[in-house]
Amino acid sequence: MIPSYDLTLHALRISLDCSQKGSSTMKTSKPAGVHEELSMQWLIPVAMGLWAIWTWSREQEQERLIERGRLAAMYVNPFMSACEDLQSRIYSVLELGGLRTLRERYPDGAYAEETLYLIVRYFGWAATLSRYSPYSQDPIVIRLSEAVRDTFATTGGGFTVGAFNFFHPEQKALGKLVMSRTPGQHGIELDTISSYKFRERLTLPALSNSPSVQQSLDALRNATDGENLPGRSRLEKAQHHLVDLLHYLEEKEGYRLFAGERRKCSRSKQSRTRNGAQRPPSTAGFARPNGKARPSRTVVRHN
Q1: How far is CA 206 from CA 173, 222, 273, in A?
Q2: Which of 43, 83, 130, 139 is the most exposed, having the fewest neighbouring CB atoms within 10 Å of its CB?
Q3: What is the span of the domain harbouring residue 26?
Q4: How far is CA 202 from CA 63, 82, 129, in A?
Q5: Model confidence pLDDT, tens digit, residues 119-146
Q6: Over the chain, what is the mean pLDDT?
Q7: Closest CA to 90 of 166, 82, 105, 253
Q8: Has residue 206 been placed in a domain?
Q9: Do 118 and 49 reside in the same domain of the chain?
Q10: Residue 138 domain-assigned (yes or no)
């Protein structure tokens, strides 16, 4: 598509050519002063009209950018936040012994409901992004966001029915459950309910009787660690897609939610054993969440 200012310059060149041709045809019959006056009579209104068109196109572009920024603030930013919170929780639980830390923080087991809330919040914002955001037709965002949803929904390729398995209709229902509508600067705006209110809604019959919901909560409460967490492979794959999705959106939006380096979950020990692979040897340093390994502080002395 040709930019508006290019069209304006092109039209101005055409008008000048026309005025020059017109003046050249009249040179044989009229004095030079008359030719200049006729040329100005053509040029001034044409230039004013083109300036008006250019100004209008600039205003339209500014309004488009303002609207784009509004949509990003309302839908893209919350979606990216939901992706970051979910992938970070999954990585912490599976790779950094996060279940032990969560149990210390939430002795009553509320961390299970909170983790489920992060999953469901993603479902809600993913549906919202696909309808209202500037990325509603972006093929990469569609592919990666749907890959996350498919990972939770599929039962093939080694994924079994059980913990963290939510079919697409249930994902849609759960996503709507956490979304709310509130009056805002631009009318009715979408937001998510708090994790506390979500815990209250888990007592509703529809959720208390849901096998997928209860199996996921039981897995988080009863697993000894992330290595033995039922549904681990499903969470691993979802976290991989979330990291890819965040990298793409951050590049497009021009800012980062996490200043460090995000790392993807490794395959479970059972999966590596099935494929005949050995667990990599431990390093002298310590693993850092979503970052690089901390170098060893051991000092080697040479005599």
Answers
A1: 10, 23, 39
A2: 139
A3: 4-60
A4: 43, 20, 25
A5: 999 999 999 998 888 888 899 999 999 9
A6: 78
A7: 82
A8: yes
A9: no
A10: yes
